[in-house]
Write a structure and sequence with these properties.
single chain, 11 helices, globular
């Protein structure tokens, strides 16, 4: 008679995005030695990589391409999060920069690993975040508490600027206002239709609109 037991949890599906090819390949070899982790893809940070990540239905994105107040990085990550809302993100190879850390937290990133961390530290962060928890260097806990306190003090200011859009978003919505289709907007801004669709959807959510045309109207009224 077979002995029943608990079924092993499914491996964590991890997609590695790093600019340095050697680093990516090293991480892939490291993670493939772990039975609880399944590497489903690896690439550099690019427009086409978003669709690749979405197609694998990854559980977790391991990312080293993120800088505070960098519109390109911010837009790219937002596109990933719109395409795969349930994906968890762990940043690795990060500088000890509180501004980058706080920006990462605001972008919904759940793991933050410094560049001087060990392979064990990185593996532990991946496991922790995959379980629905957060992981960051202990030295940044105080930074986070201070940011939360400042956030509460600036609540009124945040409400007043809730429709503040990035330069790219305003550029895109001005083309929507002109009646251009997603395909035409993509051609004008040298983006994929996939990215344009995600940008419009994100703006609609930000201004609480039910349609792209309502979003244009709300944005005009707030200016």
């Amino acid at each position: 008679m077979p002995i029943s037991g608990k079924q092993s949890p499914s491996p964590i599906k991890v997609f590695v995005v790093a600019e340095n090819r050697l680093l990516r390949e090293t991480l892939v070899r490291l993670f493939r030695k772990r039975s609880e982790i399944n590497i489903v893809g690896e690439t550099c940070c690019s427009e086409s990589s978003i669709e690749a990540i979405a197609s694998t239905k990854s559980d977790l994105l391991l990312l080293d391409c993120f800088k505070a107040n960098n519109a390109s990085d911010d837009d790219w990550l937002a596109d990933v999060q719109e395409s795969i809302p349930e994906i968890k993100v762990v940043l690795f190879g990060m500088d000890e920069d509180p501004e980058i850390f706080i920006q990462a937290v605001r972008r919904g990133i759940a793991g933050f690993v410094l560049k001087n961390a060990s392979a064990t530290d990185l593996l532990e962060a991946v496991r922790t975040v995959a379980q629905g928890e957060a992981s960051c260097p202990p030295k940044f806990c105080k930074v986070l508490f201070k940011a939360l306190a400042a956030n509460d003090q600036n609540k009124d200011e945040r409400i007043a600027t809730q429709f503040e859009l990035t330069q790219r978003q305003r550029q895109l919505m001005s083309l929507v206002a002109m009646g251009l289709s997603n395909k035409e907007i993509a051609a004008n801004l040298n983006l994929s239709e996939f990215t344009v669709k995600n940008h419009i959807y994100r703006v609609m959510k930000q201004v609480d609109a039910q349609s792209r045309h309502e979003a244009v109207s709300l944005i005009r009224d707030s200016d």
